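Protein: histidine kinase
Species: Paucidesulfovibrio gracilis DSM 16080
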Amino acid sequence: MKSKKRFIERVHALFSRLSLRNKLLGSMLVAVLFISIGIAFVARWILVSSLTNELEMRGSAIAHSVAERGASYLLDNDVPPLLSLIFDEVRLHERRDLISYIFIENQDGMVLAHTLTRRLPDSLRRNRLPADASESIRLLRDDDRWIYDIAVPINEGLYRIGAVHVGLSKDHIDNLVGKLRLTFFGFISGVILVALGISSGMTRHIARPLTRLTGLADEISRGNFDVPLAVNGESDWDTSACPAYTNTDLPCWHLDQSTFSGEVRRCAHCAFYHEVKGDELVQLGNSFRNMVWSIRLYRQRLRESEEKYRSLFDSGPEPVLVVDLGSGNIKDANPRAEELYGYAPGEMLGRPFVSLGPQVNAECLQRFQEETVSGCLYYPKLVHYRRDGEPFFVNMHACPIAYRGRAAIIVAAVDITEMMEKDAQLIQASKMKTLGEMSAGMAHELNQPLNAIRMGSEFLSMAEEGVEVAPEQRREVLREIGVQVDRAAEIINTLRAFGRKADLVRERLDLNKPVLAVLSMLRRQFELENVRFDLDLAEGLPPVYAHNNRLQQVFFNLLTNARDALDAMRSEAAKRGVTISPCIRIRTGVSGRQVYAEVEDNGPGIPEMVRAKIFEPFFTTKETGQGMGLGLAITYGIVKDYGGDIHIEGEEGSGTVFRVMFPCAPGEDQE
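Structure follows.
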């Protein structure tokens, strides 16, 4: 069983290594051979059977003729006429080779006459004619030859008076069959030769275009798309005959018609895409030719597109990187990126993307690897690092692409360090201006603990003048002096922290903390201006990701902006002789996954037409010299830096509410 299976596998392997032409030729020859063999066997059976039956019928006819003519001689027991009769039948030239003998026997089975020159062998008398049979045919053997013995009765009326035996030579019949077989074999051989010639021509006609297609496909697989496209013997196409090949702005209407809406357009006389008459092989060659031409056309367009966008990639003014998502390594970088990050040409390739900015870059890669985003990501004001470790700020865009068959992202980074420095300087200048405006209130705030310290020191100096001071009073005065010193130090530290230049960092922060810090600086000054505060600060707020110093700037700007609106309203009311009670309400709380803080005033409100511009830089409704219009623009930028949002509510004439919202910081186990 195994050897048979191994043989079949070898035959299959040998057959698979043959060319298509040899396979077709071999298949046709095998088919013709099997058909011919089948026809030969069928024809041989039919012809041999027919020839044998025909010869047996001739022998039977001779026997019946002898029986009819020799009946009278047999009745008279006249032997000489019987001998003459049977010898005349045997000696006919067309029967000499066929008839081996004729003998006649009477009803008792005694042989009266025969044509043999020797004694009739007993082996030839074994064909006994049954009583009711009209003839009997039996194959007998006489020494080294076979003979068909045909026995026919001799009747006189209703009575049988003897029998005639005619022996037909089987060798003669076999010779006739052999000649017939040889003739038929020659005919079959001729048919096979003719079929071989026809099959060879047909297979050559079939295989020639396929061989050309194979050679053309091999050249194309090697990247040679400039190989001539002549497959069926026709001339190759001239690319200059198609305007779409040399002009990428002009579409090929035959190929690109599906990309255009409306009526389908076609060239009046397309030099390439037309119907070719011929068989299936011609149609196949033409279709392959069209396919290669399409590939060549779009390869030309792709090459031009790659050259165009490669030049844009290399000459772009902004740094651009290509990062492999699987490995997280940089696969390509334009010269501007190498210059910005301080690397030599080609040195950035293969380096980890997270080495440029560990935390956010790793988060960006993870989000694309986990397919949690389908579009582009934008990361503003990130800290990246140059090769020497120097930090700088960038705005980063990351979009998914396919790069050389692999998933990747293309990253564009914009250096905003200089802009950040200018913004920081602008914010710091705004702080300094604010501190100057707060000087009166801060002086009053510091005078209170200083006066208390002075009074305590004067009280203690009375003991030096002989006035008796109780120990409990001395301890109380000293404790109060310490409290006032701590209060003054807290005021100074708050002012110093507020005036410090803030960095763009994130920390877990309670939103009430910057609110209370700003109130500690402004409360007294606002109360001197008859502005009262109404606080509703929620306890146990979830932390947010922000920075205390920068959020102090946000709430400081919102409170001073509310104070200015109340002052303007109070001045207008004083002109009309009306007295109002200015109030600023501050609320904090949680709404869903957002922590919010609201600053509300009972001022004149903001007109609808002004709200759309209120956060624009240098936009102000104040009189000239009263402000530069940067406070709310700075506030908006700081809130956006920490992923928050700011809204304005209220109607004109009914006060204004500024609502600042920040997303809750994730738990420490989720960071």
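Remarks: The chain is about 50% helix and 20% strand.
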